[in-house]
Protein: Hydrolase
Organism: Carnobacterium divergens
Amino acid sequence: MKIKKFLKIVGGMLGIILVAVLIYVGYVYVSYARLDDQLPTEIKQKATATKIVQNKEYNITTFNIGYGSYSPEYTFFMDGGKESKAYSKESVLTNVNGAAKTIQNANPDFALFQEVDVNATRSRGINEIKQLSQRFPTYSRSYATNYDSAYLMYPIFDPIGKSKSGIVTMSDVQITESTRYSLPIETNFNKFFDLDRAFTVSKIPVENGKNLMLYNVHLSAYMKDKKVQKEQIAKLFNHMEAEYKKGNYVICGGDFNHDLLDTSSEVFDNNQEEEYTWLQAFPKKDLPKNLSLAELSDVKTPVPSVRNLDKPYEKDKSFVAVIDGFIISDNVTNRRTNVIDAGFEHSDHNPVEMTFKLN
């Protein structure tokens, strides 16, 4: 009798767990939705300048701020580390403000940000757009959602939770139009972990009647289907080429999640015994003939733009690479491009800056 009673209790508990799992899976499926392609983004117009001048030097930065969670000692479970959420609200505020101050010091005319959380468990509910806007009160701004997930129950004992995150473009010249374009993603179960990848295109007038088409992108990192990864890149490249053929100037900045050097592991003397499958070579050969990567000015001793998150950061010991940067059309001159050495103090990325002029 005691055994039957015990088995009944165990069976009941397993039944409850099974029902809970089914309810959760149902919730994830029901809550899943992708935003439509080609959506206009809201523009907060603060800049007073209305046009870009030809043959004048301008400065642009791009910075993946890592949703304010990644201080140097932080590790991330999807990279082989431990943590899934920021240590505290205070650490998020410190990191976002520190990242914003780094860009302020660069004094850019245009600033691109990725992994800016609006309301996410992982970043303790902090509205990071508000923080950035306070640092750049005279810049026009556009925002688009790049990632919007249901509450994800992994890791089981410390769930990453619900995330809503996006890409922010700031300009010291008025943005007349900004559009969000959806990127292809995997259609299997992995879609629940990589929900709404996108890029934005912000139109900024030039004095000659043409426009600077400013792209902001954050491509997928943990994608297993290489076909979809190539489709993401193809859509981005094709859109940029079409704008160039209209006679416009094209600059695309962001986190490409591809190795922008010939081989970062050799340049930075990474430990190649460990396998880091997320670092794939950037497909330079697939770029349309009128587009190119903005080459770093310091190619012999470059600064890395990203660190792996399997271990706390240690200079000259951590696995690092350059995956952030710019693509430009041939009517844009790259005067200088370098990674800003911020020591990964407030993000797992370092920002990249480019000085350019429109021909």
In short: DSSP finds five helices and 18 strands in the chain. The chain has two domains: 1-31, 36-358. Residues 268 and 316 are 8 Å apart (CA to CA). The mean pLDDT is 87.
